[in-house]
Amino acid sequence: MTPPPVATSPPSSPSAVVDADALRSPFVFALCQPGAEAVVRDELAQHGLSPSFSATGFVTAKAREPLSLATLPRLVFARRLCLSLADVDDGELLAARVRARVHHEQAASGEPRGAPADDGDVVVTTVVRGRPFVGVHRQRPGLSRDPCGDAQLVVPERAPSRAWLKFEEAARVFAVPLVEGDTVVEIGCAPGGMTRALLDRGAHVVGIDRNAMDPRILAEPRFRHVQTSARHVEPSLVRTVAPSPVRLLVVDVNLPPRSALSALNAVAGAVRGTLRGALFTLKLGDYRLVAELPQWRSRIERMLRMPTQATQLPSNRQELTVFATVDG
Ligand SMILES: C[S@@+](CC[C@H](N)C(=O)[O-])C[C@H]1O[C@@H](n2cnc3c(N)ncnc32)[C@H](O)[C@@H]1O
Predict the structure, then answer these.
(1) Range(s) within the chain of domains with CATH label 3.40.50.150
(2) Quick check: CB of 192 below 6 Å from ligand 1?
(3) Would the pTM of this model clear 0.90, i.e. be above it?
(4) Nearest ligand 1 atom, CA 250
(5) Which CATH architecture has domain 164-325?
(6) What is the pLDDT of residues 35-83, one digit of tens each?
(7) Which of 8, 31, 131, 180 has its CA 20 to 30 A from that of 292?
C-alpha cells in the first residue's frame, strides 16, 4: 500500500489553509509529570514509537510510519500528546493555517498560556525546550482541555488539603457525573480536601476514614463521618447513613492499589446499583507498579460494571487517576 503523503509543514503561501486532518508527521511530543518521563517512553514504545529527546516533563519520539491526528495513540501518562511538525517553529502561523481554534504555549519558564479547548477543536501547542517544538492534537473527552494539560488551579484556603486539586482537576478532564444534591461516598476522606470540593458542588458526602477530619468539614451539615477503615464498614451501614441513593464513589486511600481495591470491595458492592461513576486515586509509590494497571482497571470494571479511563493529573505525584462511569 502506498503511504500517505508526508506534509510536515504547511504550504509556503501565508494565506493557504491546510486541513489539519491531512497533516502527517512521524514525530510526536508528549508533556507529562516531572518524573514520569520513563513511563511515557515505555508507553510510546508499546505503540511502536522510538523515544528520542527528553527533558523534564517532556518526551519526543518517532514513529516508523507518518501519523495523523486520527492515529495519534492515547497515553495514560502523557497529559498532552501532539503530532510534532518538524519544519515548523511558528505556532501562531500554524494555528492560522490549520484554523486551530486555540493556540497553547509553554515557555521555557514552564507557565502554560491559552484558552481552554472544546471537544473537536484542533489545538496547536508550542513548547519551548531549548528550541520551540510545535505540535497539533484534537481535543476529545478524557483529555485535559487546558493549555498544555494543566489548568494551574490553586488550592483555596478553605480546603484542608491539596487533595482538593485531585477532584477539581479530574472534573476538568472527565465528565464526572455529580449534580447538586447527589450523595457521594468518599473512602479515605481525611482531612477533607476532596470533601471540600464535593461539598462546594452541593453534594452530600459520607466520608469513610479512621483519621480525623478537619473541624471545618465536620461542621458541614451535608457531611457525615464514618470513622473507621472501609474494611470494617457493613454494606447496610452505608445505605443507612446515606441520605439518598449513592451516585458517586471517590477513593483516595494511602494503600497500594491492590490493597486499596480489596479494602473497598464491600462498600462498592453496597452502592454499585445506584452509582453513576467513580473516581480513584491509585498510589503507585514506585512507577514499576504501572505494569499492573491493566489488572487494576479490569478489577474496577468488574467490581462496578463500568468501563474506565485513566490519566495522570498535574496534582498526581507518583499516583494516577482512574475514572469509571456508566456513560463511558
Ligand atoms: C491521602 S490521604 C486522603 C486525603 C483526602 N482524600 C483529602 O482529600 O484530604 C489517605 C487517607 O486514606 C486513609 N485510609 C487508608 N486506608 C484506609 C481504609 N482501609 N479505609 C478508609 N480510609 C483509609 C488514611 O487514613 C488517610 O487519611
Answers:
(1) 164-325
(2) yes
(3) yes
(4) 6
(5) 3-Layer(aba) Sandwich (3.40)
(6) 999 999 999 999 999 999 999 999 999 999 999 999 999 999 999 999 9
(7) 31
